[in-house]
Each structure stands twice: as C-alpha cells, then as structure tokens.
Amino acid sequence: MGLYILIGFLFQQILEFWSSGIEHGHIHKHQSETSKGVWTLMLGLFIHAFLEGTLLSHGSAIAEESLVSGHSHSDKTVLLGIIMHKGPAAFALAAVLYSSLSKKWTILLLILFALASPMGMYSSAFFY
C-alpha cells in the first residue's frame, strides 16, 4: 500500500512540474518561459474530460458494478458529477488561456474542451 502512495505522490510531483503550478490556483510563469504550461494544462484537461465522457455511455455497467460494491451510482449521478465540476474547470481554464493567448484562441480551445466529454461518450459507445 505504501508503494502505491509513494508512486501517486511522485506522479503528482511530475504533474505539478508540467502544469506550472495551476493545480493550486495560479501559474508560476517566468519571463523566459513559453506558453508550454498552458498547452500542457489544455491537453491534460481535454484528456480528463474525454475520459469522463467515456463513462457516460456505459450507464448499465456502472449500475451493475455499483450493486456489487454496495453503493448505488447511476449514469445520472455520473452525469451530475461531471456537470458540477466542468463549470469550475472551464472557468479556471478560460482564465489561464486568456492570460496567455488571444481571445480567438481562448474561445476556440474552450469550445474544444466543451466537446471533449461528448466526444469521449460517442467514441466509447462506438468502440464498446
């Protein structure tokens, strides 16, 4: 068990290094840095949202497994959870993108982020 905690801590440190500090509310941006941290954040949140969407197309499998584990989670509770934290994530992403990129790029990347979960849902339903 301790090994998994240590691996998780190490993984968190790597993510913290790549994300330029966004996980605790602000970016550590220096004059000589490029917008690498912004693109890393966008990629990470896109993958996160995409994978969340893959859960939505498997509502019956989630319900069956929750019966085995003893607590109930339907596809509607998963959807509600995704909706509840998608808003704050989009707000934080918009603030970071707008501070480093043009308004056009910010809007384009926010639209891409908004489409990530539906893309995950449809791709998961297609390949499952």
Question: What is the compact description of this entry?
Answer:
The protein is built from 5 helices and no strands.
Describe the 3D structure:
- With 128 residues, the chain is mainly alpha-helical.
- The chain contains five helices and no strands.
- α4 (75-100) packs antiparallel against α5.
- The longest helix has 26 residues, at 75-100.
- It is globular and about 45 Å long.
- The model has no long low-confidence stretch (mean pLDDT 77).
How many helices? The count is 5
H-E order: HHHHH
Secondary structure category: mainly alpha
The helix content, as a percent range, equals over 70%
Biggest β-sheet strands, sense, barrel: none
| Residue-averaged pLDDT | 77
Global morphology? globular
Question: Would you count the extended β strands for me?
Answer: 0
Beta fraction: under 5%
Oligomer classification: single chain
The low-pLDDT segments are: none
C-alpha end-to-end distance = 32 Å
Q: Indicate the radius of gyration in whole angstroms.
A: 17 Å
Quickly list its features.
0% strand; mainly alpha; 128 residues; globular; 5 helices; single chain
